[in-house]
Design a protein that fits this description.
The protein is of the alpha+beta class and 146 residues long. It has helices spanning 53-65, 132-138, 140-143, and strands at 10-18, 24-29, 40-41, 43-46, 69-84, 87-100, 113-119. A 4-stranded mixed beta sheet has the order 4-1-6-5, with helices on one face. The longest helix is centred in the middle third of the chain and has 13 residues, at 53-65. The protein is globular, with a radius of gyration of 14 Å.
């Protein structure tokens, strides 16, 4: 069976969730995730055949954080090439900034996330997912207004 990201280019929807008050939501990846175990990451999920990008965005946020999208902004895309455990991967990440209701957030996927937490841009958890510094640099101006 062919696998997204390794046998062919996968498409993922990445979301930088915030509460509109300067706080951003991260999850700590568990050993049950595909890769980058123990690293803090923003949310994301792969685009399934036949599903729209926005439907995927909303579905993944509901699944991961148990809340709805209040407002979203498309930031851009990243062409992600990595080599993990001697396996080359290639993903196209469609990146969004998403306003959510902080009071409704919960860890909807405890099997995938060891924990979730709110942080500020100036005080991010460590260690971060390998792609997050690039994300932050690429969208720095668009992320200033949270």
């Amino acid at each position: 069976m062919m696998k997204k990201g390794t046998d062919f280019t996968g498409v993922t929807i990445s979301f930088f969730c915030h509460d509109g008050k300067g706080n951003v939501l991260f999850n700590k990846r568990s050993k049950n995730c595909r890769d980058e175990h123990g690293k803090w990451d923003i949310g994301g999920g792969s685009l399934e055949f036949g599903q729209s990008v926005i439907d995927t965005l909303k579905k993944e946020i509901e699944e991961e954080y148990g809340t709805n999208v209040l407002k979203y902004e498309f930031l851009g895309y990243n062409d992600v090439h990595r080599e993990l455990q001697e396996q080359k991967t290639h993903w196209i990440s469609l990146d969004f900034k998403v306003l959510i209701n902080r009071d409704k957030v919960k860890n909807g996927e405890p099997h995938k996330f060891e924990e979730i937490g709110w942080f500020t841009i100036d005080n991010l958890p460590q260690p971060l997912h390998s792609q997050f510094p690039k994300f932050l640099q690429q969208y720095e101006e668009k992320l200033k207004e949270l």
